[in-house]
C-alpha cells in the first residue's frame, strides 16, 4: 500500500470525505504525509473551538510553529458562530468559552495560513470586527497573499443603503485587489461612488462580479464591462430601467434596442451561460415595446449560447397594457421556435397560480424548456346563454377548450413538445383528463405527461416511459420512437378512479402500457363509485398496483372484495381487510363474494378488474404494507421491499 504512486493517492483523497481522508492519514507514515494536506485544505473553526486555538497562539513562536505546520495546506478558512447559538457552558469551563479572537490573535492565525484563497467569516458573529483587523494591519505583504474571495454579507437591511460591514468588506477586498477574483459591490448613497469605477479598474484579476445598483439610473452592464474587461461572470441587479439613448419614453423596464444589439454582437459570442430576467413587465407588453420581429431576432441570437434563458415575471397583480390581436400561445411558440436548435427535446411546464410569467431556457445538451402561466382564457371558453338553456345542470361552468397558436404567424405549436408538466390550482374535476387529451391529441412525440392538482382533492395523472418518470439521458430521449403509442409504458393515477374516458384514451394512445398504478393519499376521501377497470385491451400489461384505501371507498370500510376476471383462465376472488395499520388479503369464492356484497351489505364494496392471466397485482396500504398477488399466490412483502416498490411506483 505504501508503494502506491502519489498521483493515485492524490486522486483518491480528492474524492473522499474529510473524515475518510483523516482515517487514511492514520494508516501509515507515508499516507499521513500525503493525506494531511487534503485534510487541512478546507479548515473550519466551529463554535466553542476558538479557546484551544487561542491558547496555542499565545505559546512561544518556536513551540507554536509545530502546531500550525500544516497551515500552508489550507485553501479555505471558515469561522463559524463565535457567539454561541446554544449554551455550551455546561460542556466547557468559563475559561474555555472565550471564543472571540483579539486583533493580535486573529492576525497571527492568518499569518499561519498564507495560501488561503477563500475566507468565510460571515457566520462568525464578528464579521465586521475581523475585517477591520485585516484592514488595519500594517503587514499587508505577508497577510493573505493569495486571497481570491472574501465571502460578503449579503443580508442588507435596506435596499439602497450600505451597512458599515459592506463598506469595510469592499475596502478589505480593495486591499488585495491584485489577487481578488470574486467581488460583490453595493452601489448606493452610502458608498464611495465617485471613485467606484476607478477602483474597480484596479482589480486586475477580477473574473466574477455581482453589482447591485440602486443609485445610477443610466448605468448598464456595458459600462461595467468597460472597466472590468476580464469578467467571465457578471450578475447585475438594478432598481432602474435599463436606459436607451434613442428611446426616452419607456414606461416599464425592458431590453432596449441598443442594449439588445450589444448582447447579440458583443456578449453572445464570448459567453457560455447567459440568463436574462425581465421584471415588472409581461411578455405581451414587452413584445409591444420591443417589436415581434426584433424579439425573434434577439432570441435567435440567444440560441448560439451553450446555456441561455430569458424570463418575463412581473409582479403578481400586474395589469397588461397591451390589447393584442394575437393569442399568448402564438407569441410564446414564435419565441420558443426562435431559440430552438434543430430538432431538440422540448419540455413545457404550465400552471395557473403564476398567470403572468413566461420563461424559455436552452440547455447545454440542446434541450429546450418553456414555462408559462395559464389564464382561464387559455383553457376555457365562456358559455353563452343558449348553452345554458340547453344544459340540464343547475350551474353552468365555462367549457374547457384550449387556445391554439395562429399558424400563419407561429410555424410550430404543441407538436414539438416531448414532456408536458401541468400544475393547477383550479379544482375542476374534468381538467386532468382534458389536459391529458390535449397533450395526446397535439403532441405526437409525447414521452411524458404529468398533471398535479394543488388543491384538495389532489388529483394527479402521470404517464411516461418508466415507473420513475425520469428521462435524464439525452441519448435515451433521442432513441425513443416518435410514436406516443410505443413510448408510454406506465400510467399512474392518484386520488382518481379510472374512468371509461381515461381507459378509452389509453386504448387509443397507450396500447403498450405495462404498468397501471392507482394510489391515494391517506388524508383524501375516496370517490363514491366502486373501482372497475377493463384492462383486457392491454396485452403487454404485467402490473396493476392499487390502493387498499381507495378500494374500501369513501366511508372507509375495513373490508372490500376484489374480483379479477381473467380473459384466458378462471376468475379469482379475494377479500381485503384493513385493521388500523395492517392489511390482510385472503382467497375467497364467488358465492362468498355475492353473499357479502349483496343488498343486505350494500356498504361493503366490490372491486372488479378485467385483464390477462399473466398480470401481477400489488395492493398497497401506506408505505410499508404491500401484498402481491401473482398466479393465484398471495405474498406479503417485507418492509424493505414494500418501501422500495412504493418509492418506485407511487406518485
UniProtKB/TrEMBL annotation:
Transmembrane segments: none annotated. Residues 1-43 form the F-box domain. PROSITE patterns: FBOX. Pfam families: F-box-like. This is F-box domain-containing protein.
Amino acid at each position: 500500500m505504501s508503494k502506491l504512486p502519489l498521483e493515485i493517492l492524490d486522486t483518491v483523497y480528492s474524492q473522499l470525505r474529510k473524515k475518510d481522508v483523516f482515517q487514511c492519514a492514520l494508516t501509515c507514515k507515508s499516507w499521513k504525509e500525503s493525506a494531511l494536506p487534503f485534510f487541512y485544505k478546507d479548515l473550519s473553526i466551529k463554535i466553542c473551538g476558538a479557546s484551544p486555538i487561542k491558547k496555542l497562539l499565545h505559546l512561544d513562536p518556536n513551540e507554536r510553529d509545530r502546531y500550525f505546520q500544516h497551515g500552508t495546506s489550507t485553501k479555505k478558512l471558515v469561522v463559524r458562530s463565535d457567539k454561541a447559538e446554544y449554551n455550551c457552558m455546561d460542556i466547557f469551563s468559563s475559561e474555555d468559552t472565550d471564543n472571540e479572537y483579539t486583533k493580535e490573535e486573529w492576525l497571527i492565525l492568518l499569518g499561519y495560513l498564507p495560501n488561503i484563497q477563500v475566507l468565510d467569516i460571515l457566520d462568525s458573529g464578528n464579521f465586521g470586527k475581523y475585517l477591520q483587523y485585516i484592514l488595519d494591519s500594517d503587514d499587508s505583504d505577508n497577510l493573505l497573499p493569495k486571497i481570491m474571495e472574501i465571502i460578503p454579507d449579503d443580508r442588507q437591511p435596506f435596499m439602497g443603503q450600505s451597512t458599515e460591514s459592506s463598506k469595510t468588506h469592499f475596502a478589505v477586498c480593495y486591499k488585495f485587489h491584485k489577487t481578488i477574483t470574486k467581488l460583490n459591490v453595493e452601489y448606493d448613497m452610502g458608498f464611495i461612488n465617485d471613485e467606484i469605477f476607478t477602483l474597480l479598474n484596479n482589480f486586475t484579476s477580477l473574473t466574477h462580479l455581482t453589482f447591485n445598483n440602486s443609485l445610477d439610473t443610466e448605468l448598464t452592464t456595458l459600462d461595467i464591462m468597460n472597466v472590468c474587461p476580464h469578467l467571465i461572470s457578471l450578475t447585475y441587479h438594478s432598481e432602474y430601467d435599463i436606459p436607451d439613448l434613442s428611446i426616452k419614453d419607456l414606461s416599464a423596464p425592458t431590453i432596449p434596442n441598443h442594449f439588445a444589439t450589444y448582447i447579440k454582437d458583443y456578449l453572445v459570442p464570448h459567453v457560455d451561460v447567459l440568463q436574462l430576467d425581465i421584471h415588472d413587465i409581461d411578455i405581451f407588453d414587452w413584445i409591444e415595446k420591443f417589436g415581434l420581429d426584433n424579439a425573434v431576432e434577439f432570441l435567435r441570437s440567444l440560441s448560439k449560447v451553450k446555456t441561455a434563458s430569458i424570463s418575463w415575471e412581473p409582479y403578481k397583480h400586474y395589469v397588461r397594457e397591451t390589447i393584442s390581436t394575437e393569442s399568448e400561445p402564438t407569441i410564446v411558440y414564435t419565441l420558443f421556435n426562435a431559440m430552438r436548435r434543430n430538432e431538440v427535446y422540448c419540455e413545457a411546464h404550465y400552471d395557473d397560480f403564476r398567470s403572468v410569467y413566461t420563461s424559455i431556457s436552452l440547455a447545454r445538451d440542446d434541450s429546450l424548456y418553456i414555462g408559462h402561466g395559464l389564464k382561464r382564457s387559455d383553457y376555457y371558453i365562456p358559455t353563452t346563454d343558449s348553452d345554458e338553456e340547453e344544459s340540464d345542470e343547475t350551474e353552468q361552468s365555462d367549457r374547457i377548450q384550449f387556445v391554439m397558436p395562429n399558424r400563419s404567424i407561429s410555424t410550430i405549436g404543441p407538436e414539438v413538445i416531448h414532456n408536458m408538466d401541468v400544475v393547477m390550482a383550479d379544482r375542476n374535476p374534468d381538467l386532468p383528463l382534458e389536459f391529458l387529451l390535449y397533450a395526446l391529441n397535439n403532441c405526437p412525440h409525447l414521452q411524458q405527461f404529468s398533471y398535479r392538482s394543488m388543491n384538495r382533492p389532489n388529483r394527479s395523472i402521470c404517464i411516461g416511459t418508466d415507473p420513475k418518470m425520469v428521462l435524464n439521458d439525452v441519448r435515451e430521449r433521442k432513441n425513443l420512437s416518435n410514436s406516443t403509442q410505443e413510448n408510454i409504458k406506465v400510467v399512474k393515477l392518484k386520488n382518481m378512479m379510472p374512468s371509461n374516458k381515461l381507459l378509452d384514451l389509453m386504448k387509443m394512445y397507450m396500447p403498450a402500457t405495462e404498468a397501471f398504478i392507482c394510489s391515494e393519499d391517506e388524508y383524501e376521501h375516496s370517490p363514491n363509485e366502486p373501482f372497475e377497470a377493463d384492462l383486457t385491451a392491454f396485452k403487454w400489461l404485467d402490473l396493476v398496483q392499487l390502493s387498499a384505501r381507495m378500494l374500501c371507498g369513501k366511508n372507509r370500510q375495513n373490508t372490500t372484495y376484489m374480483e379479477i376476471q381473467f380473459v384466458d383462465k378462471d376468475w379469482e376472488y379475494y377479500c381485503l381487510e384493513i385493521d388500523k395499520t395492517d392489511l390482510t388479503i385472503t382467497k375467497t369464492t364467488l358465492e362468498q363474494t355475492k353473499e357479502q356484497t349483496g343488498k343486505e351489505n350494500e356498504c361493503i364494496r366490490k372491486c372488479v378488474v378485467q385483464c390477462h392471466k399473466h398480470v401481477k397485482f400489488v395492493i398497497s396500504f401506506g408505505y410499508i404494507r404491500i401484498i402481491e398477488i401473482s398466479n393465484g399466490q398471495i405474498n406479503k412483502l417485507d418492509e424493505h421491499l414494500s418501501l422500495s416498490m412504493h418509492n418506485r411506483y407511487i406518485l
